[in-house]
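subagent[fold] <- orchestrator: predict structure for attached chain, return tokens only, no commentary.
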Amino acid sequence: MSFILSPVFYGAMLLCYLIGLGLFYVDFLKDNRIANRFGVAMLCVVWLMETGFLGVMIKMDHLLPFFSSAQGTIFFSWLLITVSIVVNYLSRIDYFSFLMNLLGFLFVAFATFAHGQPVNIPFGQGDLLLLHISVAFLSYIMFTLSFIFSVLYLLADSALRFKRFQSGPFRRLPPLQRLDLYAYRSAVVGLPLLLIAMILGSVWYALVYGYVLILDPKPLFAIVLAIMYGIYLYMHSTGRLGGRKASWWNLACFLAIVLNFLVVGQFASQLHR
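subagent[fold] -> orchestrator:
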């Protein structure tokens, strides 16, 4: 158990992650299916290592891995790997696993510098707080999927405009319409989840402290995020925003998500820190 929590184990997990990403990159450049299969295998190894790490932390702290920044970040990476493996198994989408797990690696690397401690949960209110955090994580997963599909859309669009489909790695990208639809549908699911998470968090805080938390950077930024994604969905559904412009707007929305998750929540919000 002590080995799982040691720097050696954590470093080995990061190394396996890097090897998996390297194999996916080889597949990206050379269309090497063997490299892709070994990349998926390495991701499964990382998934098992992260599962063991989170399991030990849960056993030690008697809390789910939501209530400290480091554990929460690794748990988010674990979710990204899980989604990536499932999507790769059900419907192979080239470059999806590479981009998805590149984000996961960045989150794990960030967790190295995070120094959050588990919080004390008021008696009787832990379930509501747990639900708030769980739904927020699910919304982040859906927004991440939407972001990946928008990135793939921009790559495919660039390949078409510069006629790179005849050779090179871009020839295996899915059709533009399908990528745009996947990005839109993922955001359609993510926005209601974000709104539900915001409502649950407000209710939990009001029950515990007697008033609704408003003047805190993270909930204020979450309102901005909801407005940004609301604009994206409305403009896309009415046909006023599509194609490259919609994808670029979606990328800006996701960058705001990352800013809220890694910067605002860690350094600006006293409650969420």
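orchestrator: received. Logging for downstream: The longest helix spans residues 126-161. The CA atoms of residues 88 and 97 lie 7 Å apart.
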